[in-house]
Write a structure and sequence with these properties.
mainly alpha, 45% helix, globular
Length: 128
């Protein structure tokens, strides 16, 4: 039996100050690719035309309702539950209005532990 007081192992049961389990950082670059693909679908543009560091959602033809649609798809793809999705949606929307690039969205997703979405949550690709 180990002594928990002297253990150097982190307590995986520890919670963040807000009471939620802490998130393991995700991969922002992988999340940026997910955001880019979803933006391309919502904005009806080619994904390759979206630069994850420079392209602006609103300059690409986006507007607030499309932003909500894109964010909803992102959250669905990552399997974010209904309760957390309310918080995440607000934060993603705020960040989008502050800096409307895919990477800013991706950085938040990575902070929350997202990178590669779970395969079961990914919607089927549609052909154009």
């Amino acid at each position: 039996m180990t002594d928990n007081l002297t253990s150097t192992e982190p307590d995986v049961r520890a919670t963040a100050p807000d009471g939620h389990l802490p998130h393991k950082p995700g991969d922002a670059q992988e999340a940026a690719e997910v955001v880019r693909r979803i933006w391309a679908q919502v904005l009806e543009v080619e994904a390759e035309s979206i630069d994850v560091h420079r392209s602006d959602f609103f300059e690409l033809g986006g507007y607030s309702l499309l932003a909500l649609q894109a964010i909803g798809r992102i959250l669905t793809e990552y399997g974010v539950d209904e309760v957390e999705s309310v918080e995440w949606e607000g934060e993603l929307l705020n960040r989008l209005f502050d800096n409307a690039t895919p990477m800013v969205q991706a950085e938040f997703l990575a902070e929350m532990g997202c990178g590669t979405p779970r395969a079961g949550n990914r919607p089927p690709e549609t052909s154009r």
